[in-house]
Design brief:
heterodimer; A: about 280 residues; alpha/beta; Rossmann fold; Alpha-Beta Plaits; 11 helices; about 35% helix; about 25% strand; B: about 290 residues; nine-stranded mixed β-sheet; two-stranded antiparallel sheet
């Protein structure tokens, strides 16, 4: 079973839910947690696992063999991302704009485009008992997160439960993280911003035709509009995590509430059981 | 006109609440909401829509099943897993398509169309505090960086036209394309962080990004009393890196209260967070990078 933990708004508690869930689920079987928020990965600040290996994030890269090039410009015309400028005798590549589609290679009539690879980040691996953890880290200055997320997802070993901590928002990086999962957990907060951004995330997940449920984090800290909205739209609320300053303080120190507060651990255990059993299918 | 960009790396540190308070305090300003896949400024600024435009960017492939002979060349060439093969029939997954045109260019029977892609809407609105330019990225969320650039360019042009002295931009979380697009052309960046392990980690990365693009950065710590030790670490980090410290905002439930009452926290009477934001704004106003 593959589960994505996502949210429209950032900072609603995706990582908290994902990391606590991993602890709950590893008691029942094998678990993989993959931190797909490669721009700002935070899971391991809380799990504090020791990495056993590091895999380089690689992206196809392109250059030109000038001895074969006659400056015809077919590559630049084929590139839809303005990543190639055509000079009279050769093309000039702007790799930060390149989506690595390979269109230039196919378009060149002289086989002058050389495909190699370049570094765009790292994927770190760790494991401990039943829990395997992967974390992607995008190089600073690198614009596109999706290729690294795609590569990391291909490195995920089989497990009873796979958890993907998705990036915030509802743009391409979030879509890449959630597109092939069995279920999406949307974490939100009971505030006007939380509700507004949750609706955007719901629309994206509905577009992907994936089943989803909502976790309300900091329950009781805001208003009732989010809960009422979910009820009116028939969206299941699968957990409510109460608001408390002691949770926020523990979080600030990098501590997970699953190991600290039994009442909260029980909420996560329930959520874990729901996900493990595919409760949404009932 | 100068531009102040507010970013955070980590989401939920209070970027938008602070930006909205600045909007309530600034004179002759114009506002850009560049968090295009979760744009929240409009929820508080109560904008009157002046203009709405479709935002087209890039193209989207589609396979005409009546022309497709099922050779599978597009499926083999697509590097984005955007061609689906179901029961021998090929189709494009619009959410995975990046608009590279490889399938379109290489289909042997020209069965693929490649039309301009509607990626979202762009709005120019008037508010009691000045003009707000904002956007809504469509489901699927391709080209968010380009939509950010469009929002910024539009705000800049309008701001110059209106004789504004300051443009205040609410940025997206992260460090990727939409953040890079937000940074382009900004005169200074305010990094809003929080004294949590993740707040610190993400601030360091977003600071590296500002350094990479050589844009001066300021830092302030929201929810500072949640963890006094970590707040000190952030201040020390700033001092070491030459990121000017603008102050702390306490962990304060009135921030949420103000949001629910659809007002900027700085306008909520007796709010400790509001008072702290006012102090930060007064400090910023002494900065020549932003104010002549």
């Amino acid at each position: 079973m593959k589960i994505a933990i996502a949210s429209g708004k950032g900072g609603t508690g995706k990582t908290t839910v994902a990391a606590n869930l991993a602890l709950a689920l590893e008691r029942k079987g094998s678990v993989v947690l993959a931190d797909c928020d490669v721009e700002e990965p935070n899971c391991n600040l809380f799990l504090q696992m020791e990495y056993s290996r590091e895999e380089p994030g690689v992206l196809p890269s392109f250059s030109c063999d000038v001895s074969r090039c006659d400056g015809c410009g077919a590559c630049a015309r084929a590139c839809r991302f303005n990543a190639i400028a055509s000079l009279p005798d050769r093309p000039l590549f702007f790799l930060e704009m390149c989506h690595a589609c390979g269109g230039c290679v196919l378009a060149c009539p002289h086989q002058a485009i050389i495909e190699s690879s370049r570094h765009n980040g790292v994927i770190r691996h760790a494991s401990r008992g039943n829990l395997t953890f992967l974390s992607g880290l995008l190089d600073v200055g690198e614009a596109m997160a999706t290729p690294l997320i795609r590569q990391m997802k291909k490195s995920i070993p089989p497990a009873d439960m796979v958890l993907l901590d998705a990036p915030p928002g509802a743009a391409c990086a979030m879509i890449e993280a959630v597109r092939d999962v069995d279920y999406v957990v949307l974490v939100s907060e009971p505030t006007p911003f939380g509700l507004h951004d949750l609706i955007i995330a719901m629309d994206a997940v509905e577009e992907l035709k994936l089943p989803f449920g909502v976790v309300i984090n900091w329950y009781g800290s805001g208003d009732d509009a989010l809960e009422e909205y979910c009820l009116s739209r028939g969206v299941p609320i699968i957990a409510k995590i109460p608001y408390s300053r002691k949770i926020a303080e523990a979080y600030s120190r990098g501590e997970l509430f699953y190991t600290l507060f039994p009442d909260l651990a029980e909420i996560v255990d329930h959520l874990g059981a729901y996900l493990r059993q595919g409760g949404w299918k009932a | 006109m100068k531009e102040l960009l507010v970013i955070s790396g980590k989401g939920g540190t209070g970027k938008t609440s602070i930006t909205l308070s600045f909007a309530a305090l600034a004179e002759k300003a114009i506002f850009a909401d560049c968090d295009v896949d979760a744009a929240d400024m409009a929820l508080i600024l109560k904008p009157q829509e002046q203009q709405r435009e479709d935002f087209y960017s890039g193209s989207l492939a589609a396979i005409d099943p009546s022309l497709c002979m099922g050779c599978g060349k597009c499926y083999r060439l697509c590097r984005f897993d955007a061609i689906r093969a179901e029961e021998g029939e090929f189709s494009v997954d619009p959410l995975a398509c990046e608009g590279c045109g490889v399938c379109y260019d290489n289909c042997p029977v020209k069965a693929i169309t490649f039309e301009p892609r509607l990626c979202g809407d762009l709005y120019v609105s008037s508010t009691s505090r000045g003009t707000l330019v904002h956007a809504r990225l469509g489901a699927g969320g391709e080209n968010s960086g380009k939509l950010v650039s469009e929002v910024k360019q539009r705000t800049k042009a309008l701001g110059e036209e209106q004789g504004c002295s300051l443009m205040i931009t609410d940025g997206p979380p992260g460090i990727g394309c939409s953040v890079i697009a937000s940074l382009t052309g900004a005169d200074a960046v305010l990094i809003v962080t929080e004294p949590t392990v993740s707040g610190i980690h993400d601030m360091e990365r977003v600071y590296e990004l500002c350094k990479h693009f050589r844009i001066p950065a300021y830092v302030c710590v929201n929810k500072a009393d949640l963890n006094v030790e970590n707040a000190k670490k952030i201040r020390a980090f700033g001092e070491e890196k030459g990121v000017q410290w603008l102050g702390e905002i306490p962990y304060d439930p009135s921030v949420t209260k103000a949001m629910i009452q659809t007002m900027p926290v700085v306008s909520l009477e007796g709010s400790p967070a509001g008072e702290a934001i006012l102090t930060i704004w007064e400090m910023l106003k002494n900065e020549r990078t932003l104010f002549q």
